[in-house]
Amino acid sequence: MAADEREILTYESFGTAVRELAQQVVDSGYEPDLILSIARGGLGLGMGLGYALDVKNLSAVNVEFYTGVDERLDVPMMLPPTPDAVDLAGLRVLIADDVADTGKTLEIVRDFCADHVAEARVAVIYEKPWTTVHADYVWRHTEAWIDFPWSAAPPLVRRDRAGSATAG
């Protein structure tokens, strides 16, 4: 695959991915009590899986790692607020994210859940071959950079670290 090749996910194919991932979960017999989405990329997937699997207990965790195309922090950081461990106690959790690339983001969330939940499984739209965390449910495997429909165009505004916006 050429270095500049990209995987293009459209909104239509995203809908297909959600339903096919949900079917994988159903076929495996896993019945999650909670879907834990990794923000931002896993939020849409978590919502879609929630509807498809009839799970109303949804939560999110915000982990910052990517700062741009192939630009990352040294280690992922879980940002507050994080789910209360008491609320996770004894639950079967399905962790949802857009892509397992390095695996470090999934690892930090899986480790966060490990001591509290009955079982945690992972669902991703895309998985890269070099990831350190292999998801239980994967829609597609790719080595390419992925253009997601929600991030294909630049933001309408740019926010500085203080949160103020400037027109883009």
TrEMBL record:
The keyword Transferase applies. Residues 7-151 form the Phosphoribosyltransferase domain. One of its GO terms (molecular function) is glycosyltransferase activity. Keywords: Glycosyltransferase, Transferase. Coiled coil: none annotated. CDD domains: PRTases_typeI. InterPro entries: PRTase-like (IPR029057), PRTase_dom (IPR000836). PANTHER family: HYPOXANTHINE PHOSPHORIBOSYLTRANSFERASE (PTHR43363), HYPOXANTHINE-GUANINE PHOSPHORIBOSYLTRANSFERASE (PTHR43363:SF1). This is Phosphoribosyltransferase. It comes from Nocardioides caricicola.
